[in-house]
Design goal:
The chain is of the alpha+beta class. 48% of the residues lie in helices and 19% in strands.
């Protein structure tokens, strides 16, 4: 992960956006982290990012895992296609 100051990003935003396609860029101001630039090479990457960071989705995944652990899930073999 590359670490740059807010002033550097402001002065060279197009360059840092291109760099973000290869690695995440942490933006700092007076030494404190204030933001991130994350490259999104495709629309699928954007959808993945949104799901991975959506609290409602994460809650549903957690609930589903709890149900599976308690034996309330459906075996793959029992699903009829």
């Amino acid at each position: 992960m590359k670490r740059v100051t807010m002033n550097e990003v402001q002065a060279n935003l197009p360059e840092y956006l291109q760099m973000a396609e290869q690695e995440d860029i942490l933006i700092v101001d007076r030494g404190k982290p204030i933001g991130m630039l994350l490259g999104l090479p495709s629309e699928d990457d954007l959808e993945d990012y949104q799901l991975e960071n959506d609290p409602r989705f994460l809650k549903r995944i957690s609930q589903a895992r709890k149900r599976l652990r308690s034996g309330q899930g459906i075996r793959l073999e029992d699903i009829q296609w």
